[in-house]
């Protein structure tokens, strides 16, 4: 086998090794092999001192990739190799004899005598070079471009195998007798090197060759580096060719490799002469990946060796890339941006755009999680700092209080010590007369001196230092034979730190005493003669008081904290249950599995067309999207729904993207559309949880003339406040605009301050801003005095006053630069907002807004309400039943397509029996029986009623014909007939009705003073106590748009008795007659109801209720618990209103 590699052939070296090999065993065994040894040229030279000498390696770096890196022992199955140590590198041989026989290894260097310049470093390359040569071709090896700086030249080396030596199975060279041969570095005269019979090396052998180099690693490294050099050579040739081709066709840009793949380095080339940057000294690339969405970069370009003025830079392409987007610029303001189209290069084999978007969403989710954790930690630290600061403040406060109490004690004790005596003649005395704290003394008392002269026993109840520690001395006195037997005595130990003793005498121990001698209400006091308080005493007293205050404060704070945590937990649980009920509220039509849709998951939508307008259609198609139909991917392709496993439902599965916060869908009869079920124009919407994108907040502005608690007349004020709070809690922005009445309850307005002034209709209007119940409120104060009349309603010009306010409110929004999404106006009093907005403000900067109008009571201002209905984008009333009851009214009848009934709610923070200061014992559904019992007793005591376990019926109402006053009167008498108690709280705006009830009150208080009480003036705290203490709350309204009384009653565990009308029908489900109707709503029956507006109707419900109280107390108590667990807050109505708001915003 023979191979010869030649590159820039220079000085020949011929090595004759006998027996010796520098190849792998398989390469040299029994063969005469001709290979090449690498000899690198350098800029320095050495003279050879003699022919037969080892060649020293000059100082300096080795050619990259051709340096032996490790050595191994000769015992491993690897070849000996030229060794490197220090600055010398030379072929080494050794002769080893394990017996008396000797073998000689010769190295003959054939060279002329002339001087030569070499790097004098040799690395022998094995037959792997043959493989490389075959792979890349000999022409590549001899290409002159390969001869660059530090590229080695090849000299011929001949190796001859002589004798009978061979390579054994263990990889070692052995002689004909199987003895192992070793190697050593040769000095100048290698022929004189011998081994003795002990195997020790004799002669001038260099120690640095004692360990051989790892042949396999050497070969691999050499092969790798040679391959890299060859690849680099080919790369340069290809780049030059591509550059030439691009230049000839006028292309100024190319990349190498031409096919760009992810997770690789590329080189970007720009021909400066063909660029708009041809005159610029600096060129930089500015870019990013994937339509400029991922990992931006700025890199400076450098001039290349290529002709035609090509510049380039290296760029790493990340694994997520599907496209590279970039421009070139001079680092300042001059750009080459491909004629404003930017440059882009596709990336092959990586993510596509959709996969990348999902990847981005996942990255954003991780980032949001990280930010949330960081924010939580910041909040925790801030809370901890607040706690530390608060703790420091209260400690200072407690120290100050302790100091003040000590000062007060000092003054008191000094006065007591001044007035105290050691005895009172013929009343009491102490022996000995001189004593100190902790001493035992005998106290004598003359029983005939006071009210205990006939007592069979006499006891002393005492303390010290003005009773500082309460009762610390209790002793029974013994009769003394002294002074005629009227005296008593007891041995007493003077308390520690006592300065003054305090006591009274009694006829028994503390729990049983009846008659006392307390020195005519002044108690007895005796000075401790030998006790003198020093400064240290008062320091210790102050510290004791301080510690006591701290302990009391901590206990109080712990109670408050625990209560707040439980309140928050109950609210969260209630909200979660209500949301699930909301999601299941249309299960007879549509529901999902799982019920709680998570972003990134797959959800199955079940639809029952038999309960919709698609009943009987042969096909049902699902059409959906996300985020209120605004998702970046647009609508989903229509999907034919498949039959579900059971029932009449059909189903379709949908993958929910990570950036979804809402799932939107409708149903159609065919792929192309046809008949739709779009929930009467509202569409179906189901919230998505866990997404990385939150729903953008809406801006809602309420324009109203009432607001609880600062300007409340009726339920409208409660709705404005509570609805606004509930929507704000769902992360939307809410403002309220209200007249600044001179009768406002400003104590409930926080941070009230002047905002601005503006003019409208020739009148200056001052604007004030404040916070009410956490809501942003703007108060408009016209300087024409329209709202300086001491009341909300009741003036002859109310329509004029509120019309002016409506126009002024819209003008304020315009001049303030507001752009709300929704303007919500209420009842006749702010109805003008609807048409004024559409006629005068839609085209003047408020075009974004949509108008929602709510009817609270159609009994007032029907004409104004009708006009507002015509102009509003969406309209509501306060319960579904009331919406049906007034559907035929001329004000509503022609607008039913945009008219919706949404039940009102109550504010669970205002009406909360667990945190109500107006009731004696806080309670929840878990201890409702105990809580209501305590409240009933407190109510009976407060109103002077008989304290007895009787059924108690409460009535809390305005006394008007609408509220069924004739039914209320009948119910009062009927309850008394059944042995119950009645409490009524309310007043009548009509003085005739008021007087009628005054007369009734007088009659009842005379005939049933212990069981009836009529309180004919509104009392807010008393209303809370009635709700908590009553067993039943009666609401017999003739008509009731919604009604909040029955909802508040259930919040406090009181059972409602109502007439079936309006919102009363929508919220109260009769325990005997409405089980199915309640089940449809996901509820349990919760009260008693009747139909008629006469005495018989009231009796039907009232008799059943009272009988249930008498006959089934355990069942009744369970019913109280059930109604308390039902959620009648704004949790559910707020979701319905948001759906309505969004539907309004969709309108053109």
From TrEMBL:
One of its GO terms (biological process) is amylopectin biosynthetic process. Pathway: Glycan biosynthesis; starch biosynthesis. It holds the Pfam family Glyco_transf_5. It comes from the Eukaryota. Its main location: plastid. Keywords: Amyloplast, Chloroplast, Coiled coil, Glycosyltransferase, Plastid, Starch biosynthesis, Transferase, Transit peptide. The keyword Transit peptide applies. It is an enzyme of class 2 (transferase). The keyword Chloroplast applies. One of its GO terms (cellular component) is chloroplast. Residues 361-419, 539-566 form a coiled coil. Residues 263-348, 438-529, 600-689 form the Carbohydrate binding module family domain. Its EC number is 2.4.1.21. It is found in: Plastid, Amyloplast; Plastid, Chloroplast. GO terms for molecular function: alpha-1,4-glucan glucosyltransferase (ADP-glucose donor) activity; alpha-1,4-glucan glucosyltransferase (UDP-glucose donor) activity; starch binding. Residues 48-88 are annotated as: Disordered. It catalyses: [(1->4)-alpha-D-glucosyl](n) + ADP-alpha-D-glucose = [(1->4)-alpha-D-glucosyl](n+1) + ADP + H(+). Belongs to the glycosyltransferase 1 family. Bacterial/plant glycogen synthase subfamily. This is starch synthase. It comes from Cicer arietinum.
């Amino acid at each position: 086998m023979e191979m010869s590699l030649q590159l820039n052939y220079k000085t020949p070296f011929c090595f004759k090794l006998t027996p010796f090999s520098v190849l792998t065993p398989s390469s040299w065994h029994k063969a005469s092999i001709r290979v090449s040894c690498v000899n690198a040229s350098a800029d320095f030279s050495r003279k050879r001192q003699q022919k037969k000498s080892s060649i020293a390696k000059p100082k300096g770096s080795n050619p990259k990739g051709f340096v032996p890196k490790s050595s191994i022992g000769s015992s491993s199955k690897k070849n000996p190799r030229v060794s490197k140590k220090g600055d010398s590198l030379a072929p080494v041989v050794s002769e080893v004899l394990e017996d008396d026989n000797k073998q000689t290894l010769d190295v003959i260097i054939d060279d002329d005598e002339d001087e030569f310049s070499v790097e004098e470093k040799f690395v022998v390359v094995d037959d792997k070079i043959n493989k490389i040569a075959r792979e890349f071709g000999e022409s590549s090896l001899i290409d002159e471009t390969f001869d660059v700086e530090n590229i080695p030249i090849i000299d011929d080396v001949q190796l001859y195998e002589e004798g009978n030596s061979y390579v054994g199975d263990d990889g070692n060279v052995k002689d004909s007798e199987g003895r192992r041969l070793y190697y050593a570095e040769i000095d100048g005269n290698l022929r004189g090197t011998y081994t003795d019979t002990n195997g020790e090396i004799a002669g001038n052998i260099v120690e640095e060759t004692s360990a051989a180099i790892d042949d396999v690693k050497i070969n691999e490294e050499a092969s790798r580096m040679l391959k890299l050099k060859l690849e680099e050579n080919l790369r340069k040739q290809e780049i030059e060719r591509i550059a030439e081709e691009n230049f000839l066709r006028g292309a100024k840009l190319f990349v190498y490799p031409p096919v760009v793949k992810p997770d690789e380095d590329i080189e970007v080339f720009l021909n400066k002469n063909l660029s708009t940057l041809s005159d610029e000294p600096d060129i930089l690339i500015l870019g990013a990946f994937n339509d400029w969405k991922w990992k931006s970069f700025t890199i400076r370009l450098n001039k290349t060796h290529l002709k035609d003025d090509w510049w380039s830079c290296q760029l790493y392409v990340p694994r997520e890339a599907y496209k590279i987007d970039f421009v070139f610029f001079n680092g300042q303001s001059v750009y080459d941006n491909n004629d404003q189209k930017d440059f882009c290069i596709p990336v092959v084999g990586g993510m596509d755009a959709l996969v990348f978007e999902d990847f981005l969403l996942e990255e954003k989710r991780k980032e949001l999680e990280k930010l949330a954790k960081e924010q939580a930690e910041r909040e925790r630290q801030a809370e901890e700092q607040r706690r530390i600061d608060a703790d420091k403040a209260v400690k200072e406060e407690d120290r100050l209080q302790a100091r003040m109490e000590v000062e007060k004690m000092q003054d008191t004790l000094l006065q007591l010590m001044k007035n105290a005596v050691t005895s009172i003649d013929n009343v009491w005395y102490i022996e000995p007369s001189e004593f100190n704290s902790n001493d035992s003394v005998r106290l004598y008392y003359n029983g005939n001196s006071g009210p205990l002269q006939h007592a069979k026993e006499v006891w002393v109840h005492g303390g010290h230092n003005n009773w500082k520690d309460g009762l610390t001395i209790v002793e029974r006195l013994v009769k003394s034979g002294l002074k005629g037997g009227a005296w008593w005595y007891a041995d007493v130990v003077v308390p520690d730190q006592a300065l003054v003793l305090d006591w009274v005498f009694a006829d028994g121990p503390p729990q049983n005493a009846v008659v006392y001698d307390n020195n005519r209400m002044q108690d007895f006091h005796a000075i401790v003669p030998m006790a003198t308080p020093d400064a240290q005493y008062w320091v210790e007293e102050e510290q004791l008081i301080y510690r006591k205050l701290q302990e009391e404060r901590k206990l109080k704070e712990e109670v408050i904290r625990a209560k707040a945590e439980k309140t928050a937990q109950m609210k969260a649980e209630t909200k979660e249950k209500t949301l699930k009920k909301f999601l299941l509220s249309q299960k007879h039509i549509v529901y999902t599995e799982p019920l709680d849709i998570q972003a990134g998951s797959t959800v199955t939508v079940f639809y029952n067309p038999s309960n919709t307008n698609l009943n009987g259609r042969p096909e049902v198609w699902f059409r959906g999207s996300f985020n209120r139909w605004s998702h970046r991917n647009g609508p989903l392709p229509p999907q034919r729904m498949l039959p579900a496993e059971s029932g009449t439902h059909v189903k379709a599965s949908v993958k929910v993207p990570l950036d979804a916060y809402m799932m939107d869908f409708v149903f159609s009869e065919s792929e192309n559309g046809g008949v739709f079920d779009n929930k009467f124009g509202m569409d179906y919407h189901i919230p998505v949880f866990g997404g990385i994108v939150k729903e953008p907040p809406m801006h809602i502005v309420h324009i109203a003339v009432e607001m609880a608690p600062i300007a409340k007349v009726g339920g409208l004020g409660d709705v404005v406040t509570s609805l606004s709070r509930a929507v704000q809690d769902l992360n939307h922005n809410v403002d309220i605009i209200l007249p600044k009445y001179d009768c406002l309850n400003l104590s409930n307005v926080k941070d009230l301050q002047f905002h601005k002034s503006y003019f409208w209709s020739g009148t200056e209007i001052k604007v004030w801003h404040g916070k009410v119940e956490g809501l942003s409120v703007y108060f408009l104060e016209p300087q024409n005095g329209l709202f300086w009349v001491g009341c909300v309603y009741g003036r002859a010009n109310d329509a004029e006053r509120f019309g002016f306010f409506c126009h002024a409110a819209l003008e304020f929004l315009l001049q303030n630069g507001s752009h709300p999404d929704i303007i919500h106006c209420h009842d006749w009093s702010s109805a003008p907002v609807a048409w004024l907005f559409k006629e005068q403000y839609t085209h003047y900067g408020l075009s974004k807004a949509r108008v929602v109008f709510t009817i609270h009571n159609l009994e007032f201002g029907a004409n104004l309400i009708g006009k507002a209905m015509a102009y509003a984008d969406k309209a509501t009333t306060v319960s579904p039943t009331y919406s049906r009851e007034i559907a035929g009214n001329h004000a509503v009848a022609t607008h039913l397509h945009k008219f919706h009934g949404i039940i009102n709610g109550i504010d669970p923070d205002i009406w909360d029996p667990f945190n109500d200061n107006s009731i004696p014992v806080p309670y929840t559904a878990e201890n409702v029986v105990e809580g209501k019992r305590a409240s009933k007793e407190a109510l009976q005591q407060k109103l002077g009623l008989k304290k007895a376990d009787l059924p108690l019926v409460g009535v809390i109402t305005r006394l008007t014909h609408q509220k069924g006053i004739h039914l209320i009167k009948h119910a009062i008498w009927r309850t008394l007939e059944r042995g119950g108690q009645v409490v009524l709280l309310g007043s009548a705006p009509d003085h005739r009705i008021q007087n009628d009830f005054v007369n009734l009150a007088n009659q009842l208080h005379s005939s049933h003073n212990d069981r009836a009480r009529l309180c004919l003036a509104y009392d807010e705290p008393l209303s809370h106590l009635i709700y908590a203490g009553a067993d039943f709350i009666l609401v017999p309204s003739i008509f009731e748009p919604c009604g909040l009384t029955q909802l508040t009653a259930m919040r406090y565990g009181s059972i409602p008795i109502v007439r079936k009308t309006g919102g009363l029908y929508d919220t109260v489900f009769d325990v005997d007659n409405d089980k199915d109707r309640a089940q449809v709503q996901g509820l349990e029956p919760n009260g008693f109801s009747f139909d008629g507006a006469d005495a018989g109707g009231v009796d039907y419900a009232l008799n059943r209720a009272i009988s249930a109280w008498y006959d089934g107390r355990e069942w009744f108590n369970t019913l109280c618990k059930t109604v308390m667990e039902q959620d009648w807050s704004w949790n559910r109505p707020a979701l319905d209103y948001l759906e309505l708001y969004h539907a309004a915003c969709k309108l053109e």
